[in-house]
Amino acid sequence: MAIGTDPRSEDRIPVIYDRSHPGRRGVRLPAPDVPPLDEAALLGPALQRTAPLGLPEVAESDVVRHYTGLSQLNYGVDTGFYPLGSCTMKYNPKVNEWVAALPGFSRVHPLQPEETIPGLLELMASMERILAEISGMDAVTLQPAAGAQGEFTGVLLMRALIRARGEERHTLIVPDSAHGTNPATAAMAGYRVAVVPSNARGGVDLAALKGLLNSDTAGLMLTNPNTLGLFEDEILEIAEAVHAAGGLLYYDGANANAILGEVRPGDMGFDVVHLNLHKTFSTPHGGGGPGSGPVGVKAVLEPFLPGPRLQRDASGRLTWDHQRPQSIGKVRSYYGNVGIVLRALAYILSHGPEGLRDVAHTAVLNANYLRARLADRYPTRYDRSVMHELVLTLAGQKVRGASALDVAKRLIDYGVYPPTVYFPLVVKEALMVEPTETESKETLDRFADTLAAIDREIEEAPELLHDAPHATPVRRLNEAEAARRPRIRWAPPADPSGGPAAP
Ligand SMILES: *Cc1c(COP(=O)(O)O)cnc(C)c1O
Question: pTM of this prediction?
Answer without folding.
Answer: 0.88
